[in-house]
Amino acid sequence: MIAYLEHFVHGNDTESRPDDDVTCLCKALDLQGSINCGPTEIASKDFGGLQSVKPLAFIRPTGADDVAGVVRAAARSSNLTVAARGNGHSINGQAMADRGIVMDMRSMEENFQVLWINGSAYAEVSGGALWEEVLKRCVLGFGLAPRSWTDYLSLTVGGTLSNAGVSGQAFRYGPQTSNVTELEVVSGKGDTLICSESENSELFFGVLGGLGQFGIITRARVLLQPAPDRVRWIRLVYAEFEDFTRDAELLVTRQEGDSFDYVEGFVFVNSNDPFNGWSTVPLDSEHGFDPTHIPSNAGPVLYCLEVALHYRNSDHPSHIDTVVNRLLGRLGFVKKLKFQVDLSYTEFLLRVKQVEKQAQANCVWDAPHPWLNLFVSQSNIADFDCFVFKKILKDGVGGPILIYPLLRSKWDSRTSIVLPEGGEIFYLVALLRFTPPYPKDPPVEKMVAQNHEIIQYCLHTGIDFKLYLPHYKTQEDWKRHFGNQWTKFLERKASFDPMAILSPGQRIFTRIPQPK
């Protein structure tokens, strides 16, 4: 079977392979799932739309045994690599394998169950399950929900745990990587291992935020809590960055019960631009944005603090009003620029799904997305605002510019995730660029160049930052990214994927040939 695979790796035309060859390969791998050795467009592109490479094969495993079998087969070859593809939402080809093997983790059997252990509830879910599926099953079936989310829930459990998984709840509960207690992982050696804080702990912490470099997550045990019934979702406008950050930091450092349950924020353009300006703030069509309330000294961009309060159906509306007014009374937003709606908990968490539907209708969801995500230290965020938000991005990015504070103490330093070096508070900054099909908008190349300019500004001025969902082209850049954690990262790679088979699309390591 290995000779068969390598026959195609070394130059045969993969696009003209007969069906008999595909059948032969399926039998050789002895998979419960399926394999496609022909042209596989879905495996050669991702949401970013910036890169495209052809794999040798696209495999749909049904469980960990299939995943392990594929990895072991690659290990016996001289140069095959393996990439685990979730829902294809990576930006720079991280889930691709140039003339390697791509595995569709969405095809994994569901195996969903809720467990009660020592009085706490957990969901056991497949690494290929979408978070939106986990949400619906937990809430509808058990009245429970995970504590920490991402904004967009059409992402796989294994995919977000391999990065971090952040949203407006992370200030309280930490990222999703801080809310998982056990994993089933297939290592780069093809071993299937159960790991946790107390069992195979080095693999457990390495895989969390490990960018797929040490193992493929095939199952996860996620901590649950009682799900609220409803959410009051509020947006507050600020003219001054200092006021915005002061209030955001106040909310994320308050104890539970003395703050909101969700805190995020974003930057928007101080104009009537339909994609970047005032109209992006109101939460429903009935409430327009009245720009006459904007202070006359406001700059080219404004800021929106986005918060939410959970509550039960049994809570009296007057009680919710009282709690919200008490929390808002401490804040210095523009008083006549407040927007709010009440909706169900699942509607709130699936809010980006509606944006996706609109973007698909407008033909921009499948267009390239040159996104940039960073963690920036609190000590440098004001300088970042002055140069990046107010100058480079003063005309917007054609999509959301997220910014909100997070707390270092909510992140486990034993994972592979790297954060800015200084202080308890750091900020997530996400430039979620869209490329609408309009001639006046900048081409993708200009957006990519703008991202590069921002990164170079941070490097040259000594901004304390780290890329989130990182993408670098050289190992020297990766060394700088990991800093003093690079040695640990190398040790874990040598232990769990010594031939560098896994996640070649990250471009951190080069496949080590199998000795003949």
Describe this structure in words.
The chain is of the alpha+beta class and 516 residues long. The chain has 3 domains: 2-108 and 495-506, Uridine Diphospho-n-acetylenolpyruvylglucosamine Reductase, domain 2; 113-226, Uridine Diphospho-n-acetylenolpyruvylglucosamine Reductase, domain 3; 230-467, FAD-linked oxidases, C-terminal domain (Vanillyl-alcohol Oxidase, Chain A, domain 3), CATH 3.40.462. It contains 15 helices and 18 strands. A hairpin with a 4-residue loop joins strand 8 (180-187) and strand 9. The two termini are 16 Å apart. Residues 1-23 have low confidence and may be disordered.
Give the class-level CATH name of the largest domain.
Answer: Alpha Beta
Strand order of the largest sheet: 14-11-13-12-16-17-15-18
Rounded to the nearest angstrom, the distance between the terminal CA atoms is 16 Å
Mean pLDDT: 92
Radius of gyration equals 23 Å
In one word, what is the shape? globular
What is the CATH fold-level name of the largest domain? Answer: Vanillyl-alcohol Oxidase, Chain A, domain 3
Number of domains: 3
Count of runs of 4 or more consecutive helical residues: 15
- Per CATH, the architecture of the largest domain is 3-Layer(aba) Sandwich
Query: What is the CATH homology-level superfamily of the largest domain?
Result: FAD-linked oxidases, C-terminal domain
The residue ranges in which pLDDT falls below 50 over 5 or more consecutive positions are 1-23
Which class do the helix and strand fractions yield? alpha+beta
Largest sheet: 8 strands, antiparallel
Q: Into which percent range does the helicity of residues fall?
A: 25-40%
What is the total tally of β strands?
A: 18
Strand content: 15-25%
Domain FAD-binding PCMH-type: 51-227
GO molecular function: cytokinin dehydrogenase activity; FAD binding
InterPro entries: Cytok_DH_C_sf, Cytokinin_DH_FAD/cytokin-bd, FAD-bd_PCMH, FAD-bd_PCMH-like_sf, FAD-bd_PCMH_sub1, FAD-bd_PCMH_sub2, FAD-linked_Oxase-like_C, FAD-linked_Oxidoreductases_BP
Protein name: cytokinin dehydrogenase
